């Protein structure tokens, strides 16, 4: 069972099985595993995944203790079983570097950690980046998320809540958005159906294997989603849902979308957990208000009142918050002369907000956001772009102006 | 009809009649009149009001042309008639300097002009301070407004809108608040009645004389208000309401209260005009959300979404915004050493946000607000207090640090 032979014949096949093995023996994700896989940081090339998988399978005592303990019950798993199930059912495992891997996820977790949300986070649930995803469906995940909105809410919506969810999901679907949501009763379902009904795609991020239809009554819904989009999960085929997996799943809902809208949520609601992730990832986070006399809307109302969510009165409010992202400089934005090349106005703002070398407590993503007033995603995107072009560099969670660029 | 003899016998009587004469011949208020009455500025002692009234009555060509034109049709008015009606009915005319004059009105208009809202304002309606008010009722206006909240809204509320208005007005009434509102059908009425029903007082600011019951169906309501509070107006006894008087009246509703709450308002609503005044007076301005599918709430929703109003989910949200005002430094707030004396933390923040002499474009009330994050009223109150104590002085609409205080 252990040893290289189980990973198959060709290099590609061996890698695929190694990723699948890790996905099977690791519950969701782990920081110590990520450090082994990407020793140069999350944005670098991965280490030899076959080697990492083999070390776990052979109980290499050089591995972190936590990782050995976490895999003590599952390390004998045979990845060929998952591969065979996946082949028969048409599922695939994707990981950073695959063409289908959604780059936005990397950005989301990069922002998350740049904002100082780590293992000791107040955001409930695992804050570590996913190292791979199981996907089932006709839609290609990387394309589906290009214009995507997370739409979440209570499993027990009011008639008004359903009505608004349907209306907003339809309008966003017609505008070309994919809906990202869980697979639950209530708001999740209303939003998926509205998107599919108008010919748009949707993505259900599951707290079980991507092939597990939970609740079972949603089997027909998931089949429709897989025809026009996909189901996605950190869990391998056949894994049943579990309470902790829902919280952990929520970070992927927020992470895959441009921003999150809470349609209807009482004070205690998984939808607010997703909103927390969206907020921590410095993404646009919105909520729809309802009657102050309705318990079912107290979560939305509180988040709006406390400025943790912007108010979405209409689908246009959501588009206004989401669409500038990725467009970079607004059309017609003048480029400012800057050294030998040229920066746009927003690039200049972001650059100016980065720290100079000696400023020890400046240059975090939130500093840059505060100084520029730009959205979190635009700030992140601009920072990475400026980094590539040599204007700034990253030092821990700080962004520093490169020498000679001032 | 003209000449000193008409102002009566005693000095007090002559002054009273002179104020009453001005109230009768001037529609609401006028900047040129205020300049004649308070040549040293609004906060100084007034000029001889009998003299000003006589000059208008005798058509003194030295008066501003606008003032002469504005009084051309009414200058023959005999103030003894109003005084006699008022005596019989138990009304009184109050003006700055009277014990019953609400000092908060002066603060409100001081803030308004400090914030740069003048005759060319985008706030619809007259922005000039009232120079006197007619009052009818058992309640003493200055005392009623000490803890008061403007509660305004549409004349055609939904059941939900009525329900929330009643609930919030009751809770605020039980907490000791007077309700300030207009006298209209709908939200105005619901709020007045809820306050009176729980033993609180209310103030109806009318767009007609304080003795004119409009709409006439509100006669019994206005009698209750006068028993436990008062009706107030810039218009003398018997003057009928008119369209422009409603807009002009709204600034007094906002001006008399600590802050304004919009209970339910569609996109076009007089209640939003009152909210605009409240905002321009840098007072807490709140709105209650409702269903996004209801036209009747679009005004509230828009103001919340656009951060022009804070969201009031419960009466506690309103109290939280209103009650810190006037308390000055929070209990237990440490005093910081500052020169020879001591400033509280908020005083230090306000002081630090004032301009130094050479900064030509700094130190406005909104600058100080932005820099400190304190509420508008607390900023104004602190500035005035620091002015009295010699730390800062006013220069036009800017606040400057006094020399030697840095």
From TrEMBL, chains A, B:
GO BP: any one term: DNA-mediated transformation
Family annotation (SUPFAM superfamilies): MCP/YpsA-like, Winged helix' DNA-binding domain
Family matches, as InterPro entries: DprA (IPR003488), DrpA_SLOG (IPR057666), WH_DNA-bd_sf (IPR036390)
Domain Smf/DprA SLOG residues, every copy: 123-322
Pfam families named among the record's database cross-references: DNA_processg_A
PANTHER family in alphabetical order: PROTEIN SMF
Family of the protein in this entry: Belongs to the DprA/Smf family.
Name of the featured protein: DNA-protecting protein DprA
Organism: Corynebacterium heidelbergense
């Amino acid at each position: 069972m252990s040893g290289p032979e189980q990973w198959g014949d060709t290099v590609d096949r061996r890698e695929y099985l190694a990723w699948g093995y890790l996905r099977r023996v690791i519950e969701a994700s782990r920081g110590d595993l990520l450090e082994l896989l990407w020793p140069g940081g999350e944005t670098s090339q991965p280490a030899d995944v076959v080697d990492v998988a083999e070390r776990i399978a052979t109980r290499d005592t050089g591995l972190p203790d936590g990782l050995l303990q976490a895999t003590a019950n599952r390390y004998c798993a045979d990845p060929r079983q998952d591969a065979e199930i996946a082949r028969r059912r048409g599922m695939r495992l994707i990981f950073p570097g695959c063409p289908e891997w959604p780059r936005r996820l990397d950005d989301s977790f990069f922002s998350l950690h740049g904002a100082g949300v780590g293992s000791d986070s107040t955001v409930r649930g695992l804050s570590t980046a996913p190292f791979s995803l199981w996907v089932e469906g006709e839609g290609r995940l990387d394309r589906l998320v290009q214009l995507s909105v997370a739409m979440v809410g209570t499993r027990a919506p009011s008639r008004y809540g359903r009505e608004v969810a349907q209306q907003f999901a339809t309008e966003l679907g017609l505008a070309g958005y994919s809906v990202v949501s869980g697979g639950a009763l209530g708001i999740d379902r209303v939003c998926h159906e509205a998107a599919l009904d108008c010919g748009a795609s949707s993505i259900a991020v599951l707290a079980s294997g991507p092939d597990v239809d939970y609740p079972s009554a949603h089997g027909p819904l998931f089949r429709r989603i897989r025809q026009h989009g996909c189901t996605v999960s950190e869990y391998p085929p056949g894994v049943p849902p579990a309470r902790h997996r829902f919280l952990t799943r929520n970070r992927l809902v927020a992470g895959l979308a441009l921003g999150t809208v809470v349609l209807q949520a009482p004070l205690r609601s998984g939808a607010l957990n997703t909103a927390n992730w969206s907020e921590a990832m410095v993404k646009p986070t919105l909520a729809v208000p309802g009657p102050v006399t309705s318990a079912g809307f107290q979560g939305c109302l509180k988040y709006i009142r406390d400025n943790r969510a912007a108010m979405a009165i209409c689908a246009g409010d959501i588009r206004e918050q989401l669409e500038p992202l990725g467009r970079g400089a607004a059309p017609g934005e003048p480029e400012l002369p800057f050294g030998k090349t040229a920066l746009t106005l927003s690039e200049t703002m972001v650059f100016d907000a980065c720290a100079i070398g000696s400023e020890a407590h400046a240059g975090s993503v939130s500093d840059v956001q505060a100084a520029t007033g730009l959205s979190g995603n635009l700030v992140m995107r601009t920072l990475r772009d400026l980094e590539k072009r040599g204007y700034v560099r990253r030092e821990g969670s700080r962004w520093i102006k490169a020498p000679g660029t001032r």
